[in-house]
Structure to design on (190 residues):
């Protein structure tokens, strides 16, 4: 990814993400931020996903695909959302905070992936590199590039992504879908 964040910028985002989780779980509003005191890269518009794991298992993941606010605000918003608003999990409680591991994925802008046949779609995907967005009418779903680690076969990857979108797992095989790809800069707490 072009223009990667420095180690210090990453640490700032991870620290602010943890603070946002703690404040949200305690029912507090986010602390005010002095944007001008932060590095320029964190003030620029940015899209992110924040993934929470607990003992190696997913505990929440919330994000956006398109930049609409400063990266630092995007990360704080999605950290709190991952803790409290991921419909797949109950809200994080205070006792869990210490056991959460935070991963931040900073996204590039999605680009359309043009293809003519299901086979061409499989061949154009880059496992381990591409995050993928599928669109079918009003339905939309995405998998971050990290999901390739659990679903390394492109056909399985697309089947699961179609199911996540609320469609038949193999819809991509018999009907053209809108496909977009993006890359991420991923980092997490040590």
């Amino acid at each position: 990814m072009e223009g990667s964040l420095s180690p210090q910028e990453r640490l700032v985002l991870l620290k602010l993400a943890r603070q946002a989780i703690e404040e949200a779980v305690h029912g507090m509003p986010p602390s005010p931020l002095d944007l001008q005191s932060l590095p320029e890269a964190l003030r620029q518009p940015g899209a992110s996903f924040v993934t929470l794991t607990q003992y190696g298992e997913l505990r929440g993941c919330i994000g956006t695909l398109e930049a609409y606010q400063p990266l630092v605000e995007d990360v704080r918003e999605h950290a709190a959302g991952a803790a409290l608003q991921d419909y797949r999990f109950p809200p994080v409680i205070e006792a869990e905070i210490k056991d959460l591991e935070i991963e931040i994925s900073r996204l590039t802008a999605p680009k359309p992936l043009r293809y003519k046949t299901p086979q061409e779609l499989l061949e154009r995907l880059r496992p381990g590199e591409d995050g993928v967005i599928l669109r079918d009418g009003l339905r939309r779903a995405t998998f971050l590039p990290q999901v390739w680690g659990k679903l390394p076969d492109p056909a399985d990857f697309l089947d699961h992504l179609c199911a996540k979108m609320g469609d038949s797992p193999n819809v991509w095989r018999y009907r053209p879908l809108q496909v977009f790809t993006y890359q991420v800069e991923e980092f997490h707490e040590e």
Remarks:
- Helices lie at 7-25, 40-43, 71-84, 118-124, 154-164, 171-174.
